[in-house]
Amino acid sequence: MLVVGTLLAALLIGLALVAVRGKPAPGAGLTADFNLANVPYAGREDAPVNVVVIEDFKCPVCKTFEETIAPELTSKYVQTGKAKLYTVVWPFLAEARRLPTDDSRLAAQAARCVYDHGGNEAFGSFKSILFRAQGDEGTVWATKTRLRELAGNVEGLDTSKFATCLNSDATAAYVDAEKKVVEDARVDHTPTVFVNGREVINARGQSSYLLADVSKAIEDASN
């Protein structure tokens, strides 16, 4: 029993060391090489800086980011051609809250369908609609019925194709694959912002930030 206990303790210590080694040093931030070929974005195609925002449509902090920081970034960097603003959806909140229906995943599927059938502009419109319609993160609000209603507000979107896409196994598989990519990058919260593959960390070495932190990262990447 003593030998078995010693071996188990050694195994747990080893796993803990692996977990620690898998994380960046405090204040260092993550690095990630995302494949952005099929990811929706706002901005000019030839913009030199890539800003990637990891979000869950059920995340209230993401809603705040979209209402406060994103418009300033759009005005200062996206509309001037200095940066592209990508949205990578990581549907984790409903699962984390153990909700009976994974509406984080359903919302992500809906957004993917809008992008597939309407492109970047339609996706941007739908993203804004979803965040405005956001309910409490502890409740199931992004049902298929509600998502179809919201998608009906996207100008020019074929709602029949959208509904078919929303129920597609291929759409669900794409969302699951994107989720794995984010988790493989060791992202553990939303929103998380990467500028040219580097996580934005504020002056205090934390992953919560203000407009100034993201702006500085973009300016640094531009030089």
Automatic annotation (TrEMBL):
Gene3D superfamilies: Glutaredoxin. Keywords: Disulfide bond, Oxidoreductase, Redox-active center, Signal. SUPFAM superfamilies: Thioredoxin-like. Residues 41-206 form the Thioredoxin-like fold domain. Belongs to the thioredoxin family. DsbA subfamily. This is Thioredoxin-like fold domain-containing protein.
